[in-house]
Amino acid sequence: MMGMSDTSYWLSWYVYYTVVSTVIVFLSWLILLINVINYSNSFLILVFMLLYAQAVFAQILLISMFFESSKYSNIVGALIYFAFNLLGIPVQSGTANPTAKIILSIFPQVAMQQICTVFGNFEGSGVGLNFNNASEKIGNYTYTAGVFMLIFSTIFWTLIAFYFDKVLPRQYGERLPACFCFKRKYYSCCNNNPNEFEEVFDA
Fold it and tell me: Among residues 23, 123, 152, 182, which is most buried (max CB within 10 A)?
């Protein structure tokens, strides 16, 4: 509506949130260093916390696409966020199917629960989580698998949010057709005719 490009719009959100979340995560991490992280590599815990914050932001971004009112978005978004925590219940057991754990880790809440279980076991045993055992399975799950899924879910939820931002009806602006991402004309790198880009709105 203000003539801002998609890149500028999305980057502004991500830069702003990343700055805010990094400050919060760093302060929380310092608190954990006082009496919780005694044996583990503190850098690995910081990486996990930062990636979890980004994955949750991407997820919340998707939820916000379905609401134009910030009031309803906040209320429903909070309920959905906590509801996603329940998805980890079926795979809480250490003997749960590892494939199911990985699949459900597309939800950052489940990945967080599984990584915390791995970290808790290593920390409780006095060994600590470190680079040498980050790929070691604890309860059919590894720290590295959880970190990978947090990175993947950040990208996945962001792309889904971007898609719905383009196709869902809004009060302002034009909506793209549901299959716009499959049209060669949409991508500027494949668009030689400047006027051809507008045709995607009429397809």
Answer: 123
